[in-house]
Every structure is written in C-alpha cells, then in structure tokens.
Amino acid sequence: KQTSPAQVEFYQAVEDVLESIEPLLEERPKYREHSIIERLLEPERQIMFRVPWMDDDGKIQVNKGYRIEFNSALGPYKGGLRFHPSVNAGIVKFLGFEQIFKNALTGLPIGGGKGGANFDPKGKSDAEIMRFCQSFMSELYRHIGPHTDVPAGDIGVGSREIGYLFGQYKRLANRFDGVLTGKGELWGGSQVRKEATGYGVVYFAQCMMDDQDDSLDGKRCLISGSGNVAIHAMEKLYELGAKPISCSDSSGTIYHDNGIDLDLVKRIKEEQGGRLKEYLKTHDDAEYTSKDDYPEEGHSVWRYEADIAFPCATQNELTEKDARALLENGCKYIVEGANMPTTQAAVELFIESGVGYGPGKASNAGGVATSQLEMAQNASMLRWDFEEVDEKLKEIMSNIYQDAKRTAEEFGHPNNLVLGANIAGFRKVADAMLEQGVV
Ligand code: NDP
Question: What does the entry list as the binding residues for substrate (predicted)?
Fold first, then answer.
C-alpha cells in the first residue's frame, strides 16, 4: 500500500521486487508469517539534516542532506552518496532499497544504505565544493563508521568529494578509518575502485553473451552518460574489441559512427568539467543532438542502430518508446550501468521480446563489490595490486550472473534475470533476518 505518493521511484523499485518474489513467497510461507516484507520496506534508520555552507560571495546557502540506513541483516550499511539537485527522500529511499539486494547478490557481507544532498555541484568552485563537503560531513560523521555505515560515491560524488569528506571525518573523529570507499590510492583507496562499476557492467555483458556463443568483438554499443560509469564501460568495451558509438550528458547526445573518442570525452568531462557539445570542435563528422530536440517521451541516445545498449546515466532514462526503437533497430542486449535506468514498461517489453536484459542491481554491482574489497584491504592494512582486484571483480560479476541465471531457472523463468536477481538477493537478506529474530 502506497503511503507517501511523492516517493514514486521508491514504489517503482518496490513493485519490481515484490512482483518477482511472488513465487518464492508461495514456496516459503515463513517469510510472510514473520512479516519480512513489512520489515524490509521500512528503513532501519533515516537521517535528514541541514547542510549550511558559505558560497564564494559570502552568502550562506542551505541544502538538505540525507542518509538512509536501510538494512543491516548482512553487514554494515553500504551505498553511495549522490549530490544532484533532483535528490529527495524518495530518490534516496529507492536507491537504498535497490542497494540491499544488489549488495546481497555480491555474496559479500554488506548491508544496504544510500545518501546524498540536493546540492548541484555544477558551476561551483573547488572551494565551494570543499566547504559543502565539510559541512555535510560535520553531521554525517556521527552516524558512520567502518563497522556501522560506509558511504561511497555516486552521481556528483567522485574522488575529489570523497577526499574532502574524508578529510573532515578524520578531523572530527580523530581516526584514520576505512569509513568511506573510493578513497585516493595514496590514503587507503583500492586499485580498480574508480573503474569497477563500468568494467563490471561489461564483464556482466560478456557473461550474458558467452551463454549465447556470442562475443563483444566488433559490436556497436550505445552508452548513455559520460560520467564515471559510462567512461569506464567505454574503456573496457574498447579493450575487448567493441565499438561505443554514442554517449550523452544532461544537455545532449553525441553520436560518432567511427567510434567515440574516449580520450577527448575524458578531457572534456573529467579534466575540464565541460559539456559534451564541445566534442564537435574536434570531430565535425560526429552528430550532436541537444536535449531540447530529443524525440517525444524518449532520448536520442537510444535511436541508433546498434547491438548492445548500456544505460549508464540515471533513473528512468530509457522509456518504452526508446525500448521499441532499440528492438526495431536490432539491439540484442541491454545491460544497465545506472540504477533503475529503464522504465517498468520498457523492462516488460524487453523481457517479453526475449532479448538479453541485465538489470542494474546485478550488472552494476561491481562498484559496491570493489568497495567491499577496499574495506577488506583497509581492515587488514594491506594493498592489493590492480590485476588482483580486477581478477576478483571479474569473478564476482560472473558469480552474480550465474546466481541470477540459476535462480531464474529454478523458478521456471530461464533468462529472466530480473526475477533471478530479485529472488536470489531477497532470499539471502530474508534468511539472515529470520535467523536474527525480530529486529
Ligand atoms: P557521474 O556523476 O560520474 O555521471 C553521471 C552522468 O549521467 C553524467 O554524464 C551526467 O551528465 C549524466 N546525468 C546525471 N543525471 C542526469 C539526468 N537527470 N539526465 C540526464 N543525464 C544525467 O555518476 P556515475 O557515473 O557515478 O553514476 C551513473 C549511474 O550509475 C547512477 O545511476 C548511479 O547511481 C549508478 N551507479 C554508480 C556507481 C558508481 O560506482 N559510481 C555504482 C553503481 C551504480 P552531466 O555531466 O551533464 O551531469
């Protein structure tokens, strides 16, 4: 029953899970008898706080800060922080809810949480970003800890922000703890963490394709976004012989039939903090579509002929109309880098049509899995090299794929990775909750 109509994304995420687990609930009535669903839907703790900070003109600005500690049945709360003007209680709640099952799927001992602020980092100076992060952490530090709650990055929170957040934590707590992941490599960060979500999505796609005796070699790929996940997905795709031909930001889409010039995208987005439109200054044979010219109820990034689509920007960015266009253009696989990027109607269409569909909570779990590897390195005071972490990431992605696939088969829906991932994740959390009593 919906009790807060404003939290539409949260209800969308809940419906997706509840529909999938119906056959499991029939088979194991114990979950209903012990009110597992009712308990799971209510976060263990929600923290909302004021984040006051001073801008470069000396004016005091105020933002809303959030941390949802959703479920700790499997381990300390773990999940990123998002800084974006669209952040509100419903968005953080949907992300936290998804995180519970994603983290369970990794097979690692981590619970689910998420947080952020309705702060817009765009156009802010470095000093403003630092003052914001310091103010945000001045409240958050009392709620987190290496065995309690370990935040990481998400949209708008990369290594620079994690650095400022960690600096302030250390100052307030007087402890050098593994309390955040995605840290700089000089001070406790893990190799491969930056690349992990994007690389992991591609490893997951590889598993799906192996099962069809198919490979990434020569495949044309559409990617949305041009941030951390999109850039590292494109990097791995090139490494494995595929060709990314589109990417986007919140202002528009680039299509480049020769293949996206990834070094240029990195320069524009990572070094200059610029807009993708600038890509045309170097490549006049590429095509740019401004957001204002996108097709009605859809996105230009999905309207090209390609073999695989990787949504890597944000929620609900691939609509039913986009899904139809992808299918008409011969797309065979959709593998999600972002959280819940595909609308419910589009997901149903993909599943009905029988194309390969990798849901984000399984396919983008490489980021949080590598965060847990960072926690393990911090706890043991060891540092593993790049190859070692990358190998573990690959193995974890393969295990997640096999787990979701096996579970889908067990419940009579082979190839339905949505059902498989939801049941496999839910079952682990629910069993841990049963074993821990009424908590
Ligand atoms: P970044 O902030 O690095 O990049 C986000 C990208 O998406 C940017 O290109 C941004 O455009 C675009 N974008 C953001 N919001 C919108 C919007 N409302 N409309 C259109 N474009 C938008 O974030 P990440 O790459 O880290 O995250 C991308 C997705 O992946 C998110 O859904 C996140 O939750 C998910 N994810 C991230 C993980 C991680 O390890 N970072 C782990 C698992 C999931 P612009 O440059 O214009 O802002």
Answer: 78, 99, 102, 153, 371
